[in-house]
Design a protein that fits this description.
By secondary structure, the chain is α+β, with helices and mostly antiparallel strands. Helices cover 42% and strands 14% of the residues.
Length: 185
């Protein structure tokens, strides 16, 4: 992102108008992005020393009565529709079943990867007591919920699996530290 001609400081504007312009810029970037936008990316559209967090808080306040909100997920922020409006959106768009519906097996494997990453197929077999289908892993990869991780130290150095930013955003997590604690029986 070059932004060479972008006046970030807006020194010629009165302070209140300057702040609203920065808010509008940040909101525009969030609106245009399909993925969470990191703090550093947002900082590039505002002046030196401007608090991105304060801008986000003011944008969130301005959107309080709107059907969408600013959400902090996967190390950044994004605009998303409030959950309350999901049925209206589905009805209007005739979306049918949810795009990211999971089978019980997919959810189990996704949880195993999330909690034990990086993990290879042999590690998943250790957890489930049977081989995990390559097709199941391919479906999770196709949904962009998992990706290849580092090579495993096991013989043959098989690929391992890790979760993605899409996984974090899908499950409304800021980071993997936000996963619920496992209850071991």
């Amino acid at each position: 992102m070059s932004g060479e001609g972008l006046d970030r400081d807006l020194a010629d504007l009165p302070p209140e108008l300057r702040w609203r312009t920065w808010m509008a810029r940040v909101e525009a970037v969030l609106f245009a992005s399909a993925a969470p936008v990191a703090r550093g990316d947002l900082a590039r559209v505002v002046g030196q020393g401007v608090s991105v967090e304060m801008l986000i808080a003011d944008i969130a306040g301005a959107l309080a009565d709107r059907p969408y909100e600013v959400a902090q997920v996967a190390g950044g922020w994004m605009l998303r529709t409030r959950a309350h409006y999901a049925d209206a959106i589905k009805a209007a768009a005739d979306l049918g079943p949810a795009k990211l519906a999971f089978t019980e097996a997919e959810m189990g494997v996704l949880c195993a990867i999330a909690y034990h990453q990086p993990i290879d197929r042999a590690g998943l077999k250790d957890i489930f007591g049977k081989d995990v289908s390559r097709d199941l892993l391919a479906r999770l990869r196709h949904k962009n919920l998992i990706a290849s991780g580092p090579r495993s130290p096991r013989p043959g150095a098989p690929h391992s699996f890790v979760t993605t930013e899409t996984f974090l955003a899908t499950f409304d997590l800021q980071s993997l530290r936000d996963l619920p604690e496992l209850e071991l029986r």
